[in-house]
Write a structure and sequence with these properties.
This protein is mainly beta and about 400 residues long. It has one domain (about 10-390): Tricorn protease N-terminal domain (Neuraminidase), CATH 2.120.10. Helix content is about 5%, strand content about 50%. The chain has two helices and 31 strands. The chain has helices at about 10-20, 335-340; strands at about 30-35, 35-40, 50-55, 55-60, 65, 65-75, 75-80, 90-95, 100-105, 115-120, 125, 145, 150, 155-165, 170-175, 185, 200-205, 210-215, 220-230, 235-240, 245-255, 260-265, 270-275, 290, 295-305, 310-320, 325-330, 335, 345-355, 360-370, 380-390. The termini are far apart.
Length: about 400
């Protein structure tokens, strides 16, 4: 038996939009989060999680390849994480309590990485070996959790991993603790363990999971946006969210009103950002419930995150095929964040990765550095910088 979603969606979202009261021309101020920084998440307290990228360095005797390190930024200060034994780490999600989930290299071997949980009191820990009072860990349950992409306010984490005995190369998982603090891991049923990989990307506070299932078309495997839910008996089931005329779709984010965003291919093969909601509340995806958000005049767009106010952020090509960060909502449509921010000619905001409920946005863009040299010669160069926009 399938359960219905837990809200009167349209009324709840419209009420929240009205309470926040953002205008069509909402203005933002920008905070520079630093060079070579990629923010991936922001919680409702304004704390940011992401990765800072370090360039390759060479000396006479050795060369150190480029690498990244996860970080948390709060109140203007950035704490850079260590690793799980390898050169790099990446933070991908943060909850209201400042718990950060991501993944890290475990050795110098390319592609050898594990999921982590970072907390201020304990630092970076391998998610595979965190135990509850009974001593059970993900590893002892036969799992190798390789990535973590989402964490909710209850500490539930989703990502990709490998389960002993499964035939797919990767499985979607949900890591959680019970009331006693003991660890449980389950394969989130986003796809059949064959013919391709399942993937989880987002989780809300009700434990509903957004991701993709493997879908075989004409002998080839493509992702198909999916939502994983539990019925009244706690048994998981999938809602396949549909397509936009093409052959694949990918869900990236779900909010606490069960609204989902991501991207899907149109019939012409071009990716468009999508928004999905269970508009009629029947617990399945019906025609017309997945809608394209359009573009900023170009051919492509992708949506990364939706907040509880129904605001969506991502990137789109403009008419000149330049990548631009956007914000979208059902009232005002899609807007170029460059036009809404006091960035002048110093910034080009290329990609918005996350938005919190108060409307703060994080992402990445090009920052122009002006240097005055000898003889007052002015030179210009661009760097990749992370940003935080505050309405």
């Amino acid at each position: 038996m399938k359960c219905h979603f837990t809200s009167t969606l349209a009324a709840a979202v419209l009420g929240l939009l009205a309470s926040i009261g953002f205008a069509p021309a909402q203005a933002y101020t920008i905070t520079d989060l630093g060079a070579d920084t990629m923010p991936y998440a922001v919680n409702d307290a304004g704390q940011v999680a992401g990765a800072v990228n370090y360039p390759a360095t060479s000396t006479k005797h050795t060369t150190i390849p480029a690498y990244s390190r996860g970080f948390i930024w709060k109140n203007g200060a950035r704490t850079v994480f260590g690793t799980l034994g390898g050169p790099g780490s990446t933070a991908r999600a943060i909850n209201i309590y400042g718990q950060v989930a991501g993944f890290s290299d475990t050795s110098s071997t390319s592609g050898s990485y594990n999921a982590f949980l970072w907390e201020s009191a304990t630092g970076l820990r391998n998610l595979n070996f965190i135990a509850g009072p009974d001593g059970i860990t993900a590893a002892s349950l036969g799992w190798v959790l390789t990535t973590a992409y989402g964490i909710n306010d209850n500490g539930q984490i989703v990502g990709r991993g490998v389960k002993t005995g499964e035939t797919s190369s990767t499985d979607a998982y949900l890591w959680e603790r019970d009331a006693a603090g003991n660890v449980a891991v389950q394969r989130v049923n986003l796809g059949i363990p064959q013919n391709g990989d399942a993937e989880t990307r987002g989780i809300n506070n009700a434990g509903q999971v957004a991701g993709s299932v493997p879908n075989v078309i004409s002998g080839e495997t493509w992702p198909y946006a999916s939502l994983w839910l539990r019925d009244l008996n706690g048994v998981g089931y999938n809602v396949n969210l549909g397509l936009l005329g093409g052959y694949m779709s990918q869900a990236y984010s779900i909010n606490n009103f069960s609204e989902v965003v991501g991207y899907a291919l149109l019939a012409n093969g071009r990716p468009n950002a999508f928004y999905w909601s269970d508009a009629n509340g029947n617990g399945v995806s019906d025609p017309g419930e997945m809608v394209s958000l359009g573009t900023l005049g170009g051919l492509h767009s992708v949506a990364f995150t939706i907040n509880d106010a129904g605001q969506v952020v991502g990137w789109s090509l403009d008419a000149a095929s330049n990548p631009r960060a956007f914000v979208w909502d059902a009232v005002n449509g899609m807007h170029d964040l460059n036009a809404l921010s006091n960035v002048g000619s110093t910034w080009l905001l290329k990609e918005a990765r996350a938005i919190n409920t108060p409307g703060r946005i994080v992402g990445n863009g090009s920052f122009t550095v002006i240097t005055v040299g000898r003889g007052n010669k002015v030179t210009y160069s661009t760097q990749n910088h992370g940003f935080l926009l505050t309405p």
